[in-house]
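Table S2 (continued). Query chain:
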Amino acid sequence: MSFAKLDELGRKLEALEHALAILGADEATHMAVGGGAKRAEAMSALAGMHHRQATAPEIADWIVAAEKEVLNEEQAAALKEFRRQYTNMTCLPSEFVERFTAARLRSEQLWRDLRAKNDWAGFEPALEGVVTLVREEAALRSDALGLDPYDALMEQYDPGNRTADITPVFADLKGFLKDFVPEALAVQQERRASNPVRPLSGVYAVERQRELGLAMMAAIGFDLTRGSLSVSHHPFCGGVPTDVRITTRYKTGDFLSALMGVLHETGHALYEQNLPQAWSHWPLGKARGMAVHESQSLFVEKQLGRNPAFWRWALPLVDQHLGESWSLAEILPHVHQVERGLIRVDADEVTYPLHVILRYELEQELVASRLAVSDLPEAWDAKMRDYLGLSTIDDPADGPMQDVHWPGGAFGYFPSYTLGAMMAAQQWAAIVRQHPAVDDEIARGHFETINEWRHKNIWSQGSRWSTPQLLERATGEKLNATYFTAHLKKRYGR
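Corresponding output:
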């Protein structure tokens, strides 16, 4: 049977994906600097091997034959998603995949070194090379999928989402935020004038912060027998569902920075750990896309981790692991702090979407060749001044060099962050409608209701539905940005 052949192929591909994922996580956390060249060579070879096996010509015949077989509903859904992925993968020749994998890995390795030195001139040629390859990828995908080049890239991260739908939503959100950020800052100033903020002590040993993070991870549902927590230049969640690799970065003067990173990545990890295991070797058993993935991480970090009810439960843990006793009134000004800043990963809920929209706009210009890489620092600075009133003109490390995404060739990814924030707010609203007392449960450290809802509506669905379909089935309506803006107004407005 052809379906059985696809099933066998899936297991072989899953093994290669496993190896690539673990090698990638190790490369970003434990690999010695001198291992970079050979690691890039090894991963490039494995990526090429995976791509050749996943795009073999005979697979097209297997798919057609399997579609004529008697399949149950799950098998039919699995085959449909397999066809979609096969079409997307056969857009790119194996030679291109190997070339691109090697280029982006070397670019990432160079980025880690040169960002620390604020050396844009040294990094620019490497990024130029990656952007050239991204344009080539976009053209190949566009021809095969019948989509605009940027939409063809975005399809790899969020199947079903299109710039024609997203751009107007982002434009409205940008307009709202440019007015709301000053309001939120004014409200914050008024509150602090009457209740001065207790400063963080600034003495937080990394190991104690790590233990606090592990305790919270376990409490909210992370399976520590199938995952771990490490340190990296840039927080991420990698590995595979049976061995999820979470990383964060620590500041000894601020325990909330690393903790919020841990909560964010734990949201990703919970999704991975709870995907349908029976279909783990099929595309059906994978996470739907990055907007959905970000909705899960931002749900934990923002809807949950910045919820006052969460801190009623969490403060005793802070005392236990860090030796500091805080009241809710004392910690919330830190948890809900709004501040114009240069760094996306450190940004608050209110300003964060502006960081994303800036990148969304610029990378479309780069992909379309309307913006040259050499002009990126000036273009970035102009938008940063307009959206957040800050300048990066003499600080490329905190401007176009601050993220790993572009050095790693991940174009079309950034919109997922703010789409995820909107989706998380909409999912939270749906949960509250069904379970009005959920805040009381959170305050007691009970996360079962939340996790059961997300398992039923998001995690267990894998890639059965497109991104827009999944959200509508889970919440009862299409993406509605008013849930996100209402959330911001309630938490940060007058």
